[in-house]
Specification:
The chain is α+β, with helices and mostly antiparallel strands. The protein is about 30% helix and about 25% strand. The protein contains 5 helices and 17 strands. The strands form 5 sheets. A 5-stranded antiparallel sheet has the order 9-8-7-4-10. Strands 11, 12, 13, 14 and 15 form a 5-stranded antiparallel sheet that branches. A 3-stranded antiparallel sheet has the order 2-1-3, with no helix packed on it. It starts with a strand and ends with a strand.
């Protein structure tokens, strides 16, 4: 059987045009799905019309018969549901949001890494160049020069001029990094670093004792050698004399004076002997102390005796019996 495209009626398979409307015919299998569905709907409607007509004829026939007391329920014919083509709802398009700006994570990471490296480098430089040296200087011991015109040198070599950095005066405070028997590595108040002979350095305690010996400026000027100053310091420490014992001199090269430099036992010794008058500033008591030196500037012997309450040393010599005789001026 063939089906008309226009009226959707069936025709013999041998026909090419519809016998009802003259439209073209096609095989039923070749019809589109919508046409096939429409055909089924048309057939269903025709069947419903036939059923409805039969029902109306039956009802008309029944009405013509005499009525009986039996009440019959009406016959309800429910037509089959009409098949409708399935319609797939189109998905609701979601609103398009504007794209978020892309964050450059690699650039941010690079910046953070470079900042961290810069912080570490700057922190290391600050620590090793500023903080660490300041801590070392703060904790380093202090030593003091007790001689005049001491040279700070760039190397541990004395008696030459090429390695002189600075000339240090009496009482210069030095930050001391290394202190050995012969040389000490120090830094002066101007920031100069170098080496100085340990023979000219005293710690704070000893320097305080020595500096307390000078009763006036003249006494320090008259006793200006390192060996004589160390002899005075050691004498006070060994004899446990307090800081009330001091030396008072007249101007340098003035005679007689409170200091004297004789040659007593060895006329050919490398160094002269050294005599000085000490005075107790609390009691007024005075005593004379005489030192002899070895060739290495250490004290060879020491003699002391009471001195008159006034006067200076005019002369010192040995008497007929080999005893030391001191002549005091009025």
């Amino acid at each position: 059987m063939k089906l008309c495209i226009q009226c959707k009626k069936e025709n013999p398979s041998s026909a090419n045009h519809c016998m009802y409307c003259g439209a073209a015919l096609v095989e039923e299998e070749q019809l589109p799905e919508e046409v096939k569905l429409q055909k089924k709907l048309t057939e269903q409607e025709e069947e419903n019309k036939l059923l409805k007509a039969a029902l109306e004829a039956q009802l008309k026939k029944e009405t013509e018969k005499p009525k009986e007391n039996v009440v019959e329920k009406p016959i309800v014919v429910t037509p089959p549901p009409i098949a409708r083509p399935a319609v797939t709802p189109s998905p609701i398009a979601k609103p398009t949001m504007p794209p978020r700006p892309k964050s450059n994570k690699k650039l941010i990471g690079l910046i953070v890494a470079l900042s961290a490296v810069a912080f570490v480098v700057f922190g290391s430089f600050l620590f090793f160049a500023v903080i660490r040296p300041a801590i070392i200087d703060k904790n380093a011991p202090r030593y003091y020069t007790f001689a005049d015109n001491v040279f700070l040198r760039s190397s541990q070599e004395a008696g030459v001029d090429y390695n002189k950095i600075a000339t240090l005066s009496y009482g210069s405070e030095l930050i001391t990094y290394e202190h050995y028997f012969d040389w000490s590595k120090v830094k002066d108040k101007s920031g100069n670093k170098g080496y100085i002979s340990s023979d000219y350095l005293l710690d704070y305690f000893d320097f305080s004792i020595l500096n307390g010996i000078w009763g006036d400026m003249e006494s320090k000027q008259c006793i200006n050698t390192a060996k004589c100053r160390l002899a005075l310091l050691n004498y006070l420490k060994v004899n446990a004399l307090g800081n009330e014992w001091q030396v008072f001199c007249r101007p340098k090269n003035t005679k007689p004076n409170a200091v004297f430099f004789p040659r007593l036992y060895n006329k050919n010794s490398k160094f002269t002997d050294f005599a000085v008058i000490f005075k107790n500033t609390q009691t007024g008591e005075r005593k004379i102390v005489i030192f002899g030196f070895n060739d290495d500037e250490t004290v060879a012997w020491t003699k002391s005796n009471d001195a008159p309450n006034s006067g200076y040393i005019k002369n010192i010599a040995l008497n007929y019996y080999g005893e030391i005789y001191v002549d005091y001026s009025e």
